[in-house]
Write a structure and sequence with these properties.
With about 220 residues, this protein is of the alpha/beta class. Helices cover about 15% and strands about 50% of the residues. The chain has helices at about 175-180, 185-200, 210-215, and strands at about 10-15, 20-25, 30-35, 40-45, 55-65, 70-80, 85-95, 100-110, 115-125, 130-140, 145-155, 160-170. The relative contact order is 0.13. The model has no long low-confidence stretch (mean pLDDT about 90).
Length: about 220
């Protein structure tokens, strides 16, 4: 279904509605209220060759699950070069029980790029039997790049399944060496490892044509 999501309007998904959208190199600032049985699947993609290398951007998503049996999926991928600065904020609020949410946010940073992830997850006292997972993984490819990650979990119910994880690291030197020993140039091996890191997010895009176009654009083969 279509929602008017401009200018931080608050939009409501009614019982049984499904909303799915890919934000490709465009600002995101949305607030969605989910009523019973509704589904949200959102991708936020900031990718090279499709962006200015000195851009600054804030992406923000607020989700309120106000009815049972709601599902929320949020995927983010930012590949930043030059002096690009991107902040991605997610605020997922389980206000009632029996809901699900999954978040997978990834950053790749080169040159002097700066990334920030703020992930706020709240499970209200009466929101029992919620299942919620938040993962942030970051790959820093330059000594001058900077990544900050701030997971914030507030869980007030006891009958829930909730997890979070955050990590920031560099390319696996052992894997690079292994690939070079098999005749792959260092530059090609480096790109293959970056591509593999990004594919976890790209593969979750439902629209096949868009997914294939992104793979071709990024040479993710």
């Amino acid at each position: 279904m279509h929602l008017n999501l401009k200018n931080m309007d608050t939009s409501t998904l009614h019982k049984g509605d499904r909303f799915e959208h890919v934000f490709l190199n465009e600002p995101v600032d949305i607030h969605i209220i989910q009523e019973a049985g509704s589904t949200v699947k959102i991708h936020i993609l900031n990718l090279p060759s499709l962006q200015e290398k000195n851009e600054e951007r804030l992406n923000r998503i607020i989700i309120d699950q106000t009815g049972p049996n709601c599902t929320t999926e949020i995927y983010g991928l930012a590949y930043l070069q030059g002096e690009a600065k991107v902040t991605t904020e997610t605020h997922v609020n389980h206000l009632v029980g029996e809901g699900k949410s999954d978040q997978l946010i990834k950053f790749v940073l080169e040159d002097q790029a700066q990334g920030r992830f703020l992930g706020e997850l709240k499970i209200a006292p009466d929101a029992q039997k919620v299942e919620s997972h938040q993962t942030n993984r970051n790959l820093v490819l330059s000594a001058d790049a900077e990544m900050r990650t701030q997971p914030q979990l507030e869980i007030y119910a006891d009958d829930v399944q909730a997890s979070h994880g955050a990590s920031t690291g560099q390319l696996d030197e052992a894997a690079l060496f292994y690939m070079q020993q098999r005749g792959i140039s260092k530059q090609k091996a480096r790109q293959l490892l970056v591509n593999a890191f990004m594919m976890d997010v790209i593969n979750t895009i439902s629209e096949e044509s868009l997914r294939e176009n992104l793979i071709n654009t990024l040479s993710l083969d």
